[in-house]
UniProtKB/TrEMBL annotation:
The gene is ruvA. It is found in: Cytoplasm. The keyword DNA damage applies. The RuvA-RuvB-RuvC complex processes Holliday junction (HJ) DNA during genetic recombination and DNA repair, while the RuvA-RuvB complex plays an important role in the rescue of blocked DNA replication forks via replication fork reversal (RFR). RuvA specifically binds to HJ cruciform DNA, conferring on it an open structure. The RuvB hexamer acts as an ATP-dependent pump, pulling dsDNA into and through the RuvAB complex. HJ branch migration allows RuvC to scan DNA until it finds its consensus sequence, where it cleaves and resolves the cruciform DNA. This is Holliday junction branch migration complex subunit RuvA. It comes from Phycicoccus sonneratiae.
Length: 202
């Protein structure tokens, strides 16, 4: 298992980064917050977990071990795969997710695309005790977000990222429009994405 990667950041996307390790560019799927903390051309260290499938090897990266542990823990529940686990952390973050699970806040959990009322109840039932030790240990990634992007291109980038996290195209477009009406014109792409995620949880 690849437990961590360290190297120069060669590319930063909304939900992925490429870290150059020993001359090899490793594509690492991340939450938007983790990606935003990475800067192209600078060194980065990510806690990682490698998901092995019959036809693929996919590397997921996190700001720290606590976030990675939460990613792995939620997947112990039937029906929760790595993509849904990453979406859970993207929408709520490790601390908020742990809090929702330990307090039984199913309403907050159903704000995550792909999780309905029954799924939320099952998550709470199976994970309440498991995540108790993790609650409050997650640390938001520190760093400067990616460079600002021209006003119009961010709409497409954010819409694609939201659809990739599980929302429908209409939901994504509506959220982007609401953000565009209120957000400052010179905000960074990662900021627009965080605002859109907040809109979708309302």
């Amino acid at each position: 298992m690849i437990a961590s990667v360290h190297g120069r950041v060669g590319h930063v996307g909304l939900d992925r980064v490429v870290v150059e390790v020993g001359g090899v560019g490793m594509l690492v799927h991340t939450t938007p917050a983790t990606a935003a903390a990475c800067q192209r051309g600078q060194e980065a260290t990510l806690a990682t977990t490698l998901v092995v499938r019959e036809d693929s090897l996919t590397l997921f990266g996190f700001s720290g071990a606590a976030e990675r542990d939460m990613f792995e823990t939620v997947q112990t529940v039937s029906g929760v795969g790595p993509r849904l686990a990453l979406a859970m952390l993207s929408v709520m973050g490790p601390d908020e997710l742990a809090g929702a699970l330990t307090t039984g806040d199913t309403k907050a959990l159903t704000a995550i695309p792909g999780i309905g009322a029954k799924s939320a109840q099952r998550l709470v039932l199976e994970l309440r005790d498991k995540v108790g030790a993790l609650h409050g240990t997650g640390t938001p990634p520190a760093g400067t977000a990616t460079a600002a992007t021209p006003a119009e291109p961010w709409r497409e980038q954010v819409t694609e990222a939201l659809v990739g996290l599980g929302w429908s195209g209409k939901q994504a477009v509506d959220a982007v429009e609401r953000v565009a009406a209120d957000a400052p014109a010179d905000a960074e792409v990662a900021t627009y994405l965080r605002l859109a995620l907040r809109e979708l949880r309302r």
